[in-house]
């Protein structure tokens, strides 16, 4: 497995967040687009939410991923075909991490987690943890704009999607990957209902540079359980996410679905019943009489991958270094993708 090396930068980057609250984003000024001299207002978050409510999960997914290019077979040039083909049939390994970083607004004065250090300092600690894991691919939760900026500076050997390209709503669930191990060949997002609004969940197709084989990574964060009750939103979001898995499986490459699902046994059983994915943390779903048997150790954060994928050294990190950084456990696992 590759060992990630992060260059830690001792510069604290703080970006002023205008009213950003995890789960209740304050939308920026609505921009307009101009075509043929006519200004057209971009739909508001509320309008997007109303439209999403009328769409079937399959329609949401189709709209998001229909333009994806076909998966290219390894080998592009005649002289390199033999070598590339030989590399492509080899298994490859990497380290996958799911890290809900605790949004900086929560630890600000007056925030729900104000006993924690400020977001910039905790982001520095997070980069040190990611380096210690040797992470090659990281899916974040609750990442805020200031934390994203600090992480991008402290991890120059990584690329991000969506970065800030999808606006404020897209920042919390960024995916990060090592550029000397992977290159991105396709990026999109699937929109889900989230806290009476909507959020884009990133989907990234990554090509392993050594073998030229590809994988999909989908990173999500579903509505929390709170006093208002968010079960309906979570069920709708899960339906969209699992429809995306079903669609992407048609491309014949491994899929990794991870993030903060805000559910334990329920999401394990749903994912392993409705898709071919398995949990990195174990458990089994025998169906029928055998039923669903979640792993004994469960959090609301999960890593799932295509059947046949080998997960090794899986751990739910709740060490003191984690407890000072975030209110979630961090999930880390080795991954080996077998030869096709």
Number of strands: 16
What sequence of helices (H) and strands (E) makes up the elements?
EEHHHEHEHEEEEEHEHEEEEEHE
Beta-sheet strand percentage? 25-35%
- CATH architecture label: 4-Layer Sandwich
Give the class-level CATH name: Alpha Beta
Q: What characterizes the major β-sheet?
A: 6 strands, mixed
| CATH superfamily caption | Endonuclease/exonuclease/phosphatase
Count of distinct structural domains: 1
* Cross-sheet strand order for the largest sheet: 5-6-4-3-16-15
- The assigned structural class equals alpha+beta
Number of H- or I-type helical stretches: 8
Distance between the termini: 19 Å
Determine the oligomeric state from the structure: single chain
- Average pLDDT figure: 87
Task: Describe the model.
Helix content is 24%, strand content 29%. By secondary structure, it is of the alpha+beta class. The strands form four sheets. A six-stranded mixed beta sheet has the order 5-6-4-3-16-15, with no helix packed on it. It has a six-stranded mixed beta sheet with strand order 7-8-9-10-14-11. The chain has a two-stranded antiparallel ribbon with strand order 1-2. Strand 1 and strand 2 form a beta hairpin. Helix 2 (57-65) crosses helix 6 and helix 4 (119-133) crosses helix 5 (145-154).
Short note summarizing the structure:
By secondary structure, the chain is α+β, with helices and mostly antiparallel strands.
